[in-house]
Structure to design on (143 residues):
């Protein structure tokens, strides 16, 4: 009886999002602002006061600050799947700018798609307990 060798490369596991691991999807956040426009005031304040703290909290993301004179402020998120998302920042207060940067950090970068008609939740696995119905219990459900 011959035994089959197990090569070291066959024992490697590939990272994937799941219940035991999380891979951040955002790889770069670019903040673009104008030095002179009044609509960029809150974005400049966020960059001066709060950006360093946000960068320390997210060491896996590269933060880039660009000065673009004559343009409205924007935040651009670049993701590992090659997509990007752009959010204009001219209408937000300082805490609103931070919330939009956090939204880009938490986003997956996937294209937003509408749910199919009649289906509320899509899943790759079935529910552990199945679908609940008031008709399948010993005593019927009463309202």
């Amino acid at each position: 009886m011959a035994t089959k060798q197990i090569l070291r490369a066959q024992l490697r596991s590939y990272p994937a999002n799941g219940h035991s691991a999380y891979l951040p999807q955002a790889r770069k956040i670019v903040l673009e602002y104008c030095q002179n426009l009044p609509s960029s005031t809150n974005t400049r304040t966020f960059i001066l006061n709060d950006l360093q703290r946000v960068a320390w909290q997210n060491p896996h993301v590269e933060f880039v600050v660009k000065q673009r004179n004559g343009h409205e402020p924007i935040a651009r998120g670049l993701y590992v799947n090659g997509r990007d998302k752009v959010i204009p920042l001219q209408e937000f207060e300082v805490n609103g700018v931070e919330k939009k940067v956090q939204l880009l950090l938490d986003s997956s970068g996937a294209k937003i798609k509408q749910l199919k008609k009649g289906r509320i939740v899509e899943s790759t696995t079935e529910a552990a307990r199945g679908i609940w119905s008031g008709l399948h219990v010993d005593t019927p459900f009463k309202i």
